[in-house]
Write a structure and sequence with these properties.
Layout: H1 3-20, H2 22-39, H3 45-58, H4 62-66
Helix pairs in contact: 2-3
């Protein structure tokens, strides 16, 4: 197994662990955000809330893991060169 395969496997294991414990991670993010908000005297409450939401959105959920991935959009056909005798627009 190559190093790249090993790293991909570890990342997948980490995602799975995060998805299984998403509720605990979200709770910890809320607790940390509330602590920081209190220590800064509620001066940056809106920014802290945005950071909490961004952190929560970064954590995969089991529902998201089980959803099928969207299919990629088809690639456009390559342009055909003009036939001999035809002029380009």
């Amino acid at each position: 197994m190559s190093l790249a395969d090993t790293l991909k496997n570890l990342v997948g294991m980490g995602r799975d662990a995060a998805a299984k414990n998403a509720d605990k991670i979200h709770e910890a993010v809320d607790k940390a955000g509330d602590f920081i908000d209190e220590k800064t005297g509620h001066k940056y409450s809106d920014k802290i809330e945005q950071g909490k939401q961004a952190a929560k959105n970064a954590v995969p959920t089991e529902q998201a893991e089980s959803a099928p991935a969207p299919e990629p959009a088809p690639e456009p056909a390559p342009e055909q060169p003009p036939a001999q005798g035809e002029s380009q627009p």
